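Dear colleague,

Thank you for sharing your sequence with our group. We've completed the structure prediction you requested, and as agreed, I am returning the results in plain text so they can be pasted directly into your records. Please verify that the sequence below matches your submission; if there's any discrepancy, let me know and we will rerun it promptly.
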Amino acid sequence: MSKNLTTRADDYSKWYNELVVKADLAENSGVRGCMVIKPYGYAIWEKMQAELDRMFKETGHQNAYFPLFVPKSMFEAEEKNAEGFAKECAIVTHYRLKNDPDNPGKLIVDPNAKLEEELIVRPTSEAIIWSTYKGWIQSYRDLPLLINQWANVVRWEMRTRLFLRTAEFLWQEGHTAHTTKAEAIEESEKMMNVYADFAENFMAIPVIKGLKTETERFAGAEETYCIEALMQDGKALQAGTSHFLGQNFAKAFDVKFANAEGKQEHVWGTSWGVSTRLMGALVMTHSDDQGLVLPPSLAPIQVVIVPIYKTDEQLDKISAVVNGLILEFKKLNISVKFDNRTTQKPGFKFAEWELKGVPVRIAVGPKDLENGTFEVARRDVLTKEVVSKDGIVTYIGELLEQIQKDLFQKALDYRNSHIVEVNSFEEFKTVLNGEGGFVSAHWDGTAETEETIKELTKATIRCIPLDRVKESGSCVFTGNPSSGRVLFAKAY
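Please find the predicted structure tokens below.
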């Protein structure tokens, strides 16, 4: 199998696009800016979804589903949110087509089928959900209300890239309502920590927890918590956000509850979400010039077994041993595939599974059966070793755990070596124009300075780290007083 991947060093963007397509994760569709997620890519997303769904339910959340369409007047109710998403909205104006009398076989919009009120195709669901909550919440006994939905949303992006930015994408969005401000803030922070836990322990991606600046905040939120990751090309990627909404949406949709004393109060809200953009993060954090590298926790196939044989008799003997091995793997919940296709040679299979990032490959031939051994290859470091048949299942289980840890450590070492403190704007530009990464610099706290730096360098403030040390300093651009460093980076 010929991979012919562009190398990361030659063209990182092209390497990424080719890898997503050649590894059978996704492809562009016949709809502008939209993608088809192929079975192998969707299998990875399903594993992400399953783990996150488990984590949400363990923290008390329930799943529900809300409409794809939002009446325009409802969407406009929370002004900041409506303004923030206005340029990305797709709008439904009519509900019927009819035959074009001038062009047989063609359809045109029926002018008599205009909707009484235009419908927005949801770019996010706060409006429809909070309008629903008004009927669900009457008393403090109805709170907290902890709801999540798995859905698709549409944001009419002009420049798109598979997984990272598409006009339609899959995601989950949590929307919760609380009796107090403190409880809502606690929820926002809790969900940020759930995302960080998932990113680090399942995706093997180290993240920095922080707060967005006011200009980078979610439209309609009072505070946005985020987790920021660093890709191999030195660009940052926002991997998840959790928003403290204050009472903004409760007031916009008049969502009130009677407290223990019978007094009416507006509820306090949060929303939080991650999307199929995580697929892009997974590809870019670990993969190499040979193809995908997947952490075992999210790999649809953790172990692939390839038989090496010349005759049907040899294949039968290998199959008998392998089938017994597969049963042992399944007892340990290790997903395994026996690639016994007769239509492809072993070399083709090796290249295919290497491209698709399967963490461990086992090769078995007649000599292996004689010697009571297997050839075991690690995808992450591209090494091979001969392992005794005895205890092979336990060995592989431990190896998968080691690969998971090693991938995280490698990504962490890269991230940590690409956080650079700078104290002048010249240093700032030198780092960004070099290897990139997170630039730790003092900022005077103004939106004007933030915007100017963005215009001059294309770098944005990714976050104000939650664990940052408060220290007096001078803004890297204006020289005005600063109370601490923030992290800048070019980003996806």
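Summary note from our side: Residues 325 and 393 are 7 Å apart (CA to CA).

Kind regards,
the structure core
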